């Protein structure tokens, strides 16, 4: 199997994992970036307050998402774009938590995906003082980028996975996970939603 996956990154409006306000997606086929996309999201009601801290980090303001599609309506496009790929994200627990929490807050079923954490892979591939995304991406040979722009972050994450696969002589994401001593996680629907 070739090195195919979709890298994903979310930005949030506040400390709630349900407050997704932007997503970036980067499609990799056979170890090469072949497509990228990103868009703003109107966070679910009750999770749509923008904290000053988060605005300072990513620069997204309430006015910028006023005309954006709300989570429950844009989720089908997100799922369609991923098209069954394994997801990769830097600190994947955060991004998978955003996906699940935004679905729950919106009253829609959480899609099921396999995912690999590029932060864990980086820790088992490079020797760095810090494994923050900019430093891990630089170790992978990925140049400077607009950190906290969701699409730019997803592309940096993709670069880590591609470089790590080469260093570990892995032909696909599953083999990379095994050789790096990581695991492919599963984002699954809650049991109640599966039985409904």
Commentary on this structure:
By secondary structure, this protein is an alpha/beta fold. It has a single domain, classed as Nucleotidyltransferase, domain 5, CATH 3.30.420. Helices cover 42% and strands 19% of the residues. It is built from 9 helices and 6 strands, in the order βββαααβαβααααβα. It has a 6-stranded mixed beta sheet with strand order 3-2-1-4-5-6, with helices on both faces. Helix 6 packs across helix 7. The chain starts with a strand and ends with a helix.
Provide tags for this entry:
9 helices; globular; six-stranded mixed sheet; disordered C terminus; about 20% strand; about 200 residues; about 40% helix; alpha/beta; Nucleotidyltransferase, domain 5
């Amino acid at each position: 199997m070739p090195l195919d996956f979709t890298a994903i990154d979310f930005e949030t409006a506040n400390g709630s994992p349900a407050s997704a306000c932007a997503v970036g997606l980067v499609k990799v086929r056979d170890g090469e970036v072949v497509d990228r996309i990103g868009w703003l999201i109107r966070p679910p009601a009750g999770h749509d307050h923008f904290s000053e801290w988060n605005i300072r980090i990513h620069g997204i303001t309430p006015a910028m998402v006023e005309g954006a599609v709300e989570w429950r309506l844009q989720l089908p496009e997100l799922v369609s774009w991923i098209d069954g790929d394994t997801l990769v994200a830097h600190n994947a627990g955060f991004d998978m938590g955003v996906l699940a929490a935004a679905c729950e807050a919106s009253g829609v079923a959480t899609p099921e995906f396999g995912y690999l954490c590029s932060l864990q892979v980086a820790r088992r591939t490079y020797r760095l003082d810090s494994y923050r995304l900019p430093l891990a991406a630089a170790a992978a040979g990925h140049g400077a980028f607009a950190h906290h722009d969701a699409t730019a972050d997803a592309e940096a994450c993709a670069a880590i996975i591609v470089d790590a696969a080469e260093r570990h002589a892995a032909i696909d994401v599953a083999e990379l996970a095994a050789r790096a001593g990581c695991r492919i996680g599963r984002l699954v629907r809650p049991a109640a939603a599966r039985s409904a």
